[in-house]
Amino acid sequence: MRFSIAVLTILLLLVGCKEDKSNDNLLEGFWLVEMNVMDNQVLPFNLKVSKKDNGSYGMQIYNAEEVIKVDEIEVKGDSITIKTPVFEGYLSGRFTKDKIEGQFVQESLNRNVPFIATHGIENRFFSNKKYTDRNVTGIWETHFSPNLDTEYVGKGIFLQEDEKITGTFRTNTGDYRYLDGILDGDSLKLSAFDGAHAFLFKAKVTDSSMTGFFYSGNHFKEPFIANRNDNFELSDPESLTFLKEGYDELAFTFPETDGNMIALADEQYRDKVVVVQLMGTWCPNCLDETKFLVEYLKENENVEVIGLAFESAKTEQLAFKSIERLKNRIGVKYPILLAQYGTYDKLKAQEKLPMLNHVLSYPTTIFIDKKGEVRKIHTGFNGPATGNKFIEFKKDFDKFVTSLSNE
User: What's the burial of 336, exposed, middle or buried (CB within 10 Å: 0-12/13-18/19+)?
Assistant: First the structure.
């Protein structure tokens, strides 16, 4: 009997050791992650796994020119959790040496998207045809949800090299960041994943038109159509949001993460140029703008910045935690105040700032002069994925802030 117990104990220890070492089995190199979205469609993206000297893992997520470094990876037995920088969303699943099966989880939104990741596949999409006589390089006037009450316009900007496509869609509220894909015959396929959003665009293409669908995770789908139009421009982002009649200034008081209440009317902001950023830690365009502001403030002391966060986190504590995580990861020195938690609904956000005609977009950037007067409101943000538009924005931002400082 004692012999049987001893044998059983040894077997259990061996099994336990095998489980403890399962993290050694995750293979290095490229992996293809495929998410299951609506209509039985698959949203792919690539990541690369490497192993550090201490035995832990590092990963990189690729979207065209964007490389997202991931260093928050937890392994327990054959379970793995991959948390992307800044954003709440994470990949969670079970793995063998060459496969991971699990879900992309966004807890505050109650969203879960199933995925399978396979080692050794570097291509995002697979082409069934070796040659296409079509080329989508150029500007495309795009209408999302055409002929519906929810219709809005976008500007597709694409570059094609052989069958590979990169680019983005700009809209009046921001851009869809770094899209990466192919043109397979007459089929356009583009995707992006950044830890906050999972985007898939699929369309049939002619020389002058596109007809297809846009998928966001497995919770949203809408049709879109597009036509070549090199002269197409979106609305002026400085004409969409403004102070309502009867108001001549912005006013607010919200808490910082340490509980201190900060108001725009505080002494530290008097007689100074102030930029107010309406944002959320869940928002990729806001992240792009935050990175820009952090870098700008390193070289310019002629402006104060205040962030107002509208958070999806279900509790105030979780919302503050998300703000602190963003500040620590990006190196934000300016205050980010919690304006709202539990939802980032724009109608409720507008209730917090009743002097605005609406909150149309995150981010929205409000420029205030030394007298406390609102001089400009910029809706949305054209991030680095928009190329020249981003460069143009940075120049205009600096020129305008400098002019306000010199008044």
Answer: buried
